[in-house]
Amino acid sequence: MSPPQDPPCDVAAAAVVVSPPDPKSHHGGGGDEDVGRPAQPPSAAVPANNPRRPVETETSYYVLMPVHELDGGAGGSGDRPPPKKRPATSGSCSGAVDDDSSPPSLPPKKRKVAVDYRVDSFGGSGSRNRETPPAVTRHGGGGGAPAGSTAMDPALANELRRREIKFGKRKVTAEAALTAPITTKLPPREKLMHDGIRAAAAAAATPRLLPPPAMNGQLHNDIVDNLSAELRERLDALGATAPRYVCTKSLKRSDVDLNQNRLLISCKQGEVFNCPITHLFTGEETIIVNKNPDETKETKKKKKKKRRKNNDDDEEEEPGLKVKKKKNKNEEKERPGLKVTMLDHGGDTYATTCRYLTSNGGYRFIGEWGKFLRNNGLAVCVNKGEEWTRSVHVKLLEFRSRRLPQADKSGHPDGALGFVVLHGDDSDSDDGEDDPCKGKAPPPANAKKNKKKKSNSKEHVNATSSSAAASASVAVERVTRSVEQEADDEDERIQRAVNGMLKLHDEGSQGEQQALLASKEEAEAKRAARRYGSQVIKKLGRGGGESGHLKPRDEGMGSVVVAHVK
DNA sequence: CCTGTCAGGGTTAGCCAACA
DNA sequence: TGTTGGCTAACCCTGACAGG
């Protein structure tokens, strides 16, 4: 659960991908996080006569190209609307994160973290101004800007330049027809590619004080811009800093249960420092939030023992109980937990307390969380037999204000920490699209199916993404003949793949990593080709010397080209 | 190389106890 | 009675490993 990286979105690695018909058309392949994402069971997906796929859409062609080239044309553009979100088909709780990650047909009872750690995916929007950067940084190459920041890594640049797409035997004319328009655009694309490279370098070199211009940054802007007037007024009144996106939490039943009155945001054990919330806290706040976790355990054990003793002989314990009560009172005064003010969409204020619970491995917000639920119509009283069938997520945006309680104790010049909590039905949300981490979230109902899907998704991802070098910032254009719905899914996947590529690159485009990826991807692509009757036409950037009648639309666009031959 | 199985780990739901 | 703190079991995913 490494913090998402903010990709330089201006440049695109280009990949011409003729996707195999189905197997991957439904799974959420994509970013590295998505590799494991469950997808449609191969059995259902592979058949060419898949009922879910229109006959004429068997072959889809994907072209990854610089985002600025995506105007009009094949339906992609830099400002194209965020990929449509797949509607949650099941009544089960599926968070925003879960949504896109999980296939519609898979309503798992329990799912992995629904917390959307897009924090950094907003171009670090969530963290860019943070005092405490995430433990995992994107700067694999060391200090300063990430690789290709101030200047593109020469090796990468060379790699990109010598990339060529080579098409082997192609009996399908349709591809040629598709590629035709592509080739016609070659000159501008080359230029754009260079522009893109420069843009990537510039973007990387630029301190991320602003959200990146595209993708997640756009999403971030959307979130912030869509704050209600009341909320804005409230923030102004508090003299709050600009809200920054933290994460998205898909509300589970336990989160909306009024009897529990708490919101749990779990953090993977051992990776608490990767949790976006963790980095919101100053040192002082961290101490408060995590106050004496060990003591609590010890006291608990003691309590347990005492309980047992109580069970054994109640009479003797009475004095002890009194003592305990007194101690508890003292503990109450010292009760750990950070006072956190929450604001809802309407600007209403809720005083909550945030604590990190080692037992649950996550942050628990208590206090007026129940009030929030009631005011926002999210409350469920399980005792009354109510069921939580909605799929609602909440977005957390952090801000600070000196006018909040305990601002002085925060240890932060901007004051105490507060959260803007925006909720919405997942069906309305589009957040999943950009979530690089959502891949982790979706647990399929069937693990076996999952695996198969997983493998498919891997193939797809690898097929669409190739060398890590190519991952140097991307945008995706899809040229497809498939139906819109299908296209949307594909779009999502490619977007995720791109994100994954970006992430890989950000993690530090190490040679080993590249080599590993390259070999893996090539193998996966070949496998996919065999399985789906496609042709692995050429793996870009591998030797690159073979002849081919098709030149890459953009130099430096690394990819595995898989042509599905109908 | 592919597939199936197993073990480990993470997340969530449910429950209970203590306290105000 | 409602709130809060905490534990634990169940579920499910993921990775590793072995067999075909």
Structural account:
By secondary structure, the protein is of the alpha+beta class. The chain is 34% helix and 14% strand. It has a seven-stranded mixed beta sheet with strand order 3-8-9-5-6-7-4. It has a three-stranded antiparallel beta sheet with strand order 1-2-10, with helices on one face. β5 (338-343) and β6 (349-357) form a beta hairpin. 54% of the residues are buried. Residues 8-19, 463-477 have a biased composition (Low complexity). One of its GO terms (cellular component) is nucleus. It is found in: Nucleus.
Essential attributes:
alpha+beta, DNA-binding, 566 residues, 3-stranded antiparallel beta sheet, 14% strand, elongated, disordered N terminus, 7-stranded mixed beta sheet, 34% helix, disordered C terminus
Question: Brief overview, please?
Answer:
With 566 residues, this protein is α+β, with helices and mostly antiparallel strands. It is 34% helix and 14% strand.
List the helices and strands and how they pair.
Layout: E1 16-19, H1 42-45, E2 60-64, H2 96-101, H3 154-161, H4 173-184, H5 186-205, H6 216-225, H7 229-238, E3 244-250, H8 253-256, E4 263-266, H9 283-289, H10 293-312, H11 314-333, E5 338-343, E6 349-357, E7 362-367, H12 369-375, E8 392-401, E9 416-425, H13 447-464, E10 476-480, H14 484-506, H15 511-532, E11 534-539, E12 560-564
Parallel strand pairs: 5-9
Antiparallel strand pairs: 1-2, 2-10, 3-8, 4-7, 5-6, 6-7, 8-9, 11-12
This protein binds a DNA duplex (20 and 20 nucleotides) through helix 10, helix 11, strand 6, strand 7 and helix 13.
